[in-house]
Fold this protein.
Amino acid sequence: MDPVNSASTHSGKVLFMASPMIALPGTMCAPAIFDPLADALYPDLNVDAFSWMTQPGPWDIPSVATNVANHIRRSYDRPVLVAGHSTGGAIALQLTLDAPELVQGLVLVGTGAHMRGHGDVSAILERITHGWDERLWADVLDRSFRIAPSPQQRRDFIDWVRGVDKRAAYDVLASQRDLDLSAELANITIPSGVIIGRHDPTRTVAQAREFADHFVNATFTVLETGHTPVFEAPEEVAECIRGLLSE
């Protein structure tokens, strides 16, 4: 069955699958972090995890958002649901503000409109400049999970970063550090879901709630995870997404 044109039932409601879901991972995060969520959403949605870090530069947030918009225009003939994790959430916000006709709904996970209070971004930028190596990749990976991936998954995630240009990591984080979209969030009226892990070391629940309050039409969900609920609690995230679809 073609999921783009199909319908399925969930909790007694009919969900019409108008489009796939574009999934945007965080900085130094392999697109495969969305694999458990893709399994949890099947057959309701096809998850298209877009590897923006391995695309040609430039890698500032607006440029990456343009690359995502071009991917959507090339690949789909209708607006899509967009999910952004961490830095991917900032890209998703920029995409929605720049090309609202392409986005029918937003899922924003472990992210925000700005990086104030994101205490380690300067340290990460310093390490990217002077120590772009497996120790850095492993440290960023390990702090991203409260429910850890298997040893093989961890190796695969670290190996994926080997193919990333360090300029992509530096440029996108520097751009995100200097970005603040708070004043523009009220212009986003599509159904949106803000999801935060209670044990996320990068953003607090209070910060995430304040972020959600800026939207006209947003749900807010706290899960018992770390920074990566799409991997750690895929069934719960899938429920949030189905709730958006039912709207």
About this structure: Confidence is low (pLDDT under 50) at residues 1-18. Residues 61-75 form the longest helix (15 residues). The radius of gyration is 17 Å. The CA atoms of residues 40 and 235 lie 6 Å apart.
